[in-house]
Amino acid sequence: xxxxxxxxxxxxxxxxxxxxxxxxxxxxxxxxxxxxxxxxxxxxxxxxxxxxxxxxxxxxxxxxxxxxxxxxxxxxxxxxxxxxxxxxxxxxxxxxxxxxxxxxxxxxxxxxxxxxxxxxxxxxxxxxxxxxxxxxxxxxxxxxxxxxxxxxxxxxxxxxxxxxxxxxxxxxxxxxxxxxxxxxxxxxxxxxxxxxxxxxxxxxxxxxxxxxxxxxxxx
Length: 219
Known about the structure:
Shape: globular
Largest sheet: 2 strands, antiparallel
Number of strands: 2
Strand content: under 5%
Helix content: over 70%
Structural class: mainly alpha
CATH architecture: Orthogonal Bundle
Number of helices: 8
CATH class: Mainly Alpha
Order of helices and strands: HHEEHHHHHH
Number of domains: 1
């Protein structure tokens, strides 16, 4: 879920969360620092042969996310593939989603002035949620873990964005939790179903693309 351009908060201090004049600098710096840390870790565990994978995943995510589900609020939602990428490689998924978010900002999805907060939400927080929800639950049932990972990632993003809107004085928290989050939860159900279907399909034809499931399957 992207936060679009043009949102101005009404609170004096907390509005720096979203107001363009502050948000561009604050979240851009935070995102750049985090991505540098992720990139350095990525370089230690990967080679130049992995660069084409990054490009391929970026293109795939941008194409898939062109299929949008409209919302009655200033945001857009779609199937994200976040869980699938996070379980393939957490560091790679963060780098991929950073590029995806930047590209989408210039394609009119999300916003340029809100790019920093969108990168923070989608490229840092979302993959972490997806990865850890699955790994916490996988010992019980891997398919349930996959579904809940996809569902929780999208739903919690709705909660996070609702809190950000509320702190910035754009929308009251009650609006975010009763309108934005439930809609995101519906999309989360779709995300969970797609995650289970795609991951199991890949396990059959390309198990190396789903190392988490391949390991579990081997056990």
